[in-house]
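Weekly modeling sync, notes
Attendees: S.R. (lead), two postdocs, one rotation student

Agenda item 3: backlog of single-chain predictions. S.R. asked that every request posted to the team notebook include the full sequence so nobody has to chase files. The rotation student volunteered to paste the first one in as an example of the format we agreed on. Action items at the bottom.

Example entry:
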Amino acid sequence: MQTSVPHVATNQSLAIALAAVLAAPERTVLVVDAAHRLQGQINASIAIERLSNDERASFLSALQQRDPVAATGLPGADRGLDELLQGDLVTLVPATDLITAARQVLARGTVTLPVVDEDHHLLGAVSRRALLRALLQQNS
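Predicted structure, as returned to the notebook:
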């Protein structure tokens, strides 16, 4: 499990969330509340789908930049991130075994799954790549 995962808080602006998406390796950030409980995620696909035409053009332009784009250059500085929040995520718990975790990742077609404790506090995430690596090591 990777404990350092890209995330933003629910009280941050949409522009900050979009900047975090752009900076994230998988173009996905998890969203947590003030108590660090997982609320959902925002990713580039959701942003492209849900932003208005002008905002989408600005975001797509930022996606093509090599250097990180500051939040000040992105839409949504005066709005919350709720409209792009994808809730009801499938999550794992620390006790989830490798096979079950791999099945969940593959069944969902996702690159990563968040890991939470019994109170839904974000602990980290497990990537498809890390799961496959661990399974290969286990079988060798």
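Discussion: group reviewed the output briefly. The mean pLDDT is 93.
Action items: rotation student to repeat for the remaining queue; S.R. to check formatting next week.
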